[in-house]
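hey so i finally got around to running the thing on that chain from the lab meeting. sorry it took forever, my laptop kept dying and i had to restart like 3 times. anyway pasting the input first so we r on the same page abt which one it is
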Amino acid sequence: MESQVRGGTRWKRFAVVMVPSVAATAAIGVALAQGALAASFSVSGQSFKVTAEDLNGTGFSQYGAIDQGYTLTGEKTAHPVAVSVFDEAHIQKMCQSVVTPNIPLLGSVSLMLTAGDSTDQAKQVYAKNLYIDVEDLNADAEFTNMDIGVAGKDISQGPGMKGGSEQANPYGFAQQAEKAHLTGVQQTAWATTAGTFKLPGLKMKLQTGTHECY
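ok and heres what got predicted. didnt touch it at all, straight out
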């Protein structure tokens, strides 16, 4: 069926392009209203950037996986990722940004979220059961009681898998640590999922053009 055309804009196609930004905005509304967000930040066919000045996490594990998704045109796509898992994490000065390109009449539109800009841990971003599907990472890192090896055949049923569309190699590389401390974090990710996401001092910006965390 042909998309309905109004004023020269194919609204069905326009809606598909704008859905990620609208969905993210709605999720932020929930966070503002409740003070805590059980969230999944994922944009179809798009990676997004995340920075943090300081991240202190406990119950850390990491394993390789393949994220399955779709592009904005509906084509299937796959992305190799390293899934980083934290039982709990406190994050200072977090920034998360995504750019949606090629929107009719507007061009690129950027969504940027910032929160937790405080040295007081009680006022920092707090996440429980946090999963980050990372494509690229730069940081200074310190791990406590590190254990490096293979994932094991039961990883698909264990705490490492978040129940999404990702697929992990049960005999692939994996590592874990009691604690993880990362500073100067810059990363590109395909998905972020958390059982609880508390965002003190949350600020959100939607603006035309390309505006990213780094």
